[in-house]
Amino acid sequence: MRVKNKIALITGGTRGIGAESAKLLAKEGATVIVVDVLDDEGQLLVEEIGRGAVYYHLDVSKPAEWEIVCEDIVNHFGRLDIVFNNAGVSGFEPGLGLGPQDPEHVSLEDWHYVVVPEEPEKATYPV
Ligand SMILES: NC(=O)c1ccc[n+]([C@@H]2O[C@H](COP(=O)([O-])OP(=O)(O)OC[C@H]3O[C@@H](n4cnc5c(N)ncnc54)[C@H](O)[C@@H]3O)[C@@H](O)[C@H]2O)c1
Predict the structure, then answer these.
(1) Distance 77 CA to ligand 1 centre (A)
(2) Which residues form the pocket of ligand 1, taking CB atoms under 6 Å from any ligand atom?
(3) Which burial class, exposed, middle or buried, applies to 30 when counting CB atoms under 10 A from its CB (0-12, 13-18, 19+)?
(4) Each residue of 68-96: pLDDT tens digit?
(5) For residues 64 and 74, is the Cβ–Cβ distance under 8 A?
(6) What's the farthest any 2 CA atoms get from each other in the chain?
(7) Cα(41)–Cα(31) distance, rounded to whole angstroms?
(8) How far apart (Å, rounded) are the C-alpha atoms in residues 106 and 36?
(9) Residue whose CA is closest, atom 5 of ligand 1?
(10) Cα of 16 to ligand 1 centre, how many Å?
C-alpha cells in the first residue's frame, strides 16, 4: 500500500473492520485519525496503535460534529488525504433496541434510524 505519511481518517474506526483498517494503515506508515461514538474504546485503540494516531468523538450522522472535527484536523495536520467512510449500523446490533429490519415489518422510525442522518436536509444524497 502507498499510504506512507498520508493522513487517514476512519469513521466507525473503534472496532471491527474500521479498527483493523486503522491498524493496517498505521502499519503501512499512515497517520490515522479514528472517529467513532465509542470514546473509551477509541482512546484505547489509538494508544495501542501509537505512531501519532488520534481519536475524536464524531457521530457521522451529525453534520455539525463533522465541521468541528474537520476544522481541528486541518488546524492540527494541515490536510486530510484519505477518508474511509466505514461507520454504519445494520439495525441488527444488540443494544440499539430496534425492532424487525425486514421490509414487511420494520417501523418507519427504525428504518430512518438506520438509513437517514439526523439532519437529512444536509445530506449529500436524496432521502
Ligand atoms: N461485517 C459485515 O459483514 C458487513 C456487511 C455489510 C456492511 N457492513 C458495513 O461495514 C461497516 C463496518 O462493519 P463492521 O462489521 O466492522 O461493523 P461494527 O458494528 O463492528 O463497527 C461499526 C462501527 O461504527 C460505529 N458507528 C456506528 N454508528 C456511528 C455513528 N453514527 N457515528 C460514528 N460511528 C458510528 C460503531 O460504534 C462501530 O465502532 C459498517 O458500516 C457495516 O454496516 C459490514
Answers:
(1) 26
(2) 11-12, 14-18, 36-38, 58-61, 86-90, 93
(3) buried
(4) 999 999 999 999 999 999 999 888 887 88
(5) no
(6) 48
(7) 18
(8) 26
(9) 90
(10) 7
How open is the CA angle 51-56-58, to the nearest 5 degrees?
A: 145
- Please write the tens of the pLDDT for every residue from 31-64: 999 999 999 999 999 999 999 999 999 999 899 9
Give distance in angstroms: CA of 12 to centre of ligand 1. Answer: 6
Give the position of cell 466505514: 86
Domains of the chain: 7-84 (3.40.50.720), 90-127 (no CATH)
Q: What's the whole-model pTM score?
A: 0.89
Q: What Rg do the C-alpha atoms of the chain give, in angstroms? A: 16
